[in-house]
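We both want to read discrete structure tokens more fluently, so let's practise on a single case. Would you write everything just below, so we can both look at the same thing?
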Amino acid sequence: MDTPNDEQSGETAALAEQLLATVATVAADLRGGQAPANMGLDVSLDRDLGIDSLGRVELTTRLEREFSVVLADSDFAEVETPRDLLRAVLGAQGRRGAAAALPEVVTTDVGTGGIPTGARTLVEVLEWHAQHNPDHPHIRLYDDDTEGEVITYRQLFEEASKVAAGLQALDLQPGEAAAIMLPTSAEYFYTFFGILIACGIAVPVYPPARMAQIEEHLRRHIGILGNCRARVLVTVEEAKPIGKLLRGQIDSLTAVATLDEVRAVGATLRRPVVSETDTAFLQYTSGSTGAPKGVVLSHGNLLANVRAMGEMLEVGPEDVFISWLPLYHDMGLIGAWLGTMYFSVPLVIMSPLHFLARPKRWLWAIHRFRGTISAAPNFAYEMCLKRLDGKDLDGIDLSCWRAACNGAEAVSPDTIEQFSDKFAAWGFDRAAMMPVYGLAENSVGLAFPPLGRGPLTDRIQRDTFMQTGEAVPAEPGDDTALRFVVCGRPLIRHQIRIVDAASRELPDRCEGRLQFKGPSSTSGYFHAPEANQAMFDGEWLDSGDKAYSVDGEIYITGRSKDIIIRAGRNIYPPEIEDAVGDLDGVQKGNVAVFGSVDPDSGTERLVVLAESRKRDEDARNELTQKINALVTDLTGSPPDDVVLAPPRTVPKTSSGKIRRASSREIYETGGVGAKRGAAWQQIARVALSGLGPRISRALRRAGESLYAGWVWLVFGISAPLTWFPVVALPGLGARWAALRVGLRAMFALTGIRVTVRGTENLPDAGSPAVIVSNHASYLDGFFMAAYLPRRVAFVVKGELVEHWATRIPMARLGYEFVKRFDREASVEDSKRITEAARAGRLPLFFAEGTFSRMAGLLPFRMGAFTAAAEARVPVVPCVLRGTRTVLRDGSWFPRRHPVTLSIGEAIAPPDGEDWQAAVALRDLSRAWILEHCGEPDLGGETSPVVDLAERQAEND
């Protein structure tokens, strides 16, 4: 095969640029005129650009016209990216398509040199930046007095490559673990990527706070080093002697070395092949008791997460990330460092100890380097509130801070409100505050609120929620209301669901277990089969958190294992801990609330363990009474035991979270001299008062199961009784009448109440139109057929003709079958449906083309609107609400829920070319449906929301 010469390569590059311009134009048409944010030869036509099957017809038509070629029919279905199209055009032109050199990945222009959209591993990301942005400042190590040490991409790659060679000389093999126990420093960054370049598995562990406790510290990590079977431990000089002693307890550990010793080996690097499915690092959860659990995170997991978070935050070339977060924790390692590395955003980083010593350093770093994005747990915002005053902040300007992410622990409504109010005087914009939700099992981020909206708090009825788990909104004057902060919606391409104890998805405002899935999700815990069995529920992962949802947004209510059930009421420790911590005499942030099972009665007792420096007996008794009164106000009954403990009693994780299970263990073993509080009468009263709610919950669950069984029994009987008349009756009108009678009887017998609105907006009999609707459930077609007053021609996928049980009745009812992956057939199908629209048969499209279990309106396909534009007939938008709750995708457990069918006013096609008219019809129809469906917009840029009245006025 001939090698292309320079002239041929130049022609190919010019052709690629011309082709990308055409693809971008079609994508912009589908996005309401807005150019795609991600444009390159390797983006997905469907997923990234929103070009559906009819969009491909328009695209290939334009390419054939522009390049004077005839593309093969197979190209229509098989091409996935612009690069595939380029190969097809080259082949059609006869330009030695197989030999022509295709240009390298075309990247989005973000930062000084773009971002590596085609990268599959973190190593590829770093190597790409080292080639394209070699001298671009990547990391700046914060210093109070100087500009700080700067690490460029070239420097990071070269130093990490030396580390990789040294690790190979220390016998680190691909797929083996190397542990890092280093403070925030240049050495940490070099070591981490050195492990990845060597195709090893990085295992961050937190370094000692004080060298005097180094032995105790290392011994705490025996479990981690043993579980991951670490081959090498890279640490500080002071830790080496004791680290070597540990080699006798960990068979796999063959080397304990400093970074200088690793680099001094001077070996030659042998570059192994790193795959996106390879494990990049293990994030050991900071659990309180038991064996450590290492979350397995692949290169693909991590890249999916940083890309999704970057999209949510709209990361751009003007951004600067300021961080003090520890690099052994996922929020600092992935959210701050790996995310900024991918998007070529400068990272200014300081040690966590520097922040804890003087919290003002964090805010002054944002001012000094004009930071736009920064993240921290709630306690950091609380520290700034409590420890900083005017003299600390004189002259500071925080107006540049556009995204203040608050996550990694429970978010306090009081903290975010007070922080926003206090620091507004120094330019902080409340809209920048973003409570977020994430967990190591999903890399780091899982749910983000809309950028620039500001925090929202839900106030709900305390008693109702604690007794039934239903989050009923509280009245404005209800001083006892519980408050939870919304953490937003799942990241793009990720899903969340709230389920009951039987893993059945719950409706909005019902508390349950939060489960998730997506490309960032771990494949499991490392060498922990029992923990994996507990975490996975089919394809879903259990977060261990309790939550409820409202319109697709998530409210976290607590950890499942931490919630205390008392007299049939759910008690949430974080709320009590925050309230008790505000009392004078209690050390804020050092309160643990937990349940402890009484060994005699087996009932769970409510215990408050609070640190206090008070020693006077009278003062301690007074403080105990205040805690009793406060807890009684919050929960309706006093705690069973209040223990005032000396400082440093309440254990915490490495990330600062309260270790409630360890606190319970200290209490139950008498570690703080706990008193036995509750008398047997109180225990008996608690047990008896909780009996009723428990019975009620059990009956409710049994009722739900009986209802689901009844629905399927009714369906099993109704289906054949309806199918046979539809197939056998001679006239189309009679068949439709039989269908409506059968379906309405089925819905009536299952107790589903259906409301139809806007029937006056349907065209008169014989008048032409196209009907479009949202799509939320398998039941949508049944509801439409049963309750639309006029007979329609459903447009359905051609695959349904393959089975006689669906083909025969659908054909007898006049359904239109379309082939989605055949270019020539798609064009013919479009012509046929256009004629049906002109003839007044009312083609009905579910414009999303598919549906998902997640609430949200997906992008619209172009078929309905192309047919309407070519036929010059109006589009009638319809909305179905409630069908997703009745039967969600992926679930066969139906629930009783009202359904509403709303029919909008007809939208006339505007003047102009058919394609542009079709795009305008799509935008107008989708805007109306989005406004009335009550669900979030999952269409992104591909389906902009427009002002319906304004656009309709322009059309008129």
Summary: Residues 456-559 form a domain with the Luciferase; domain 3 fold (CATH 2.30.38.10). The radius of gyration is 31 Å. The longest strand covers residues 540-550.
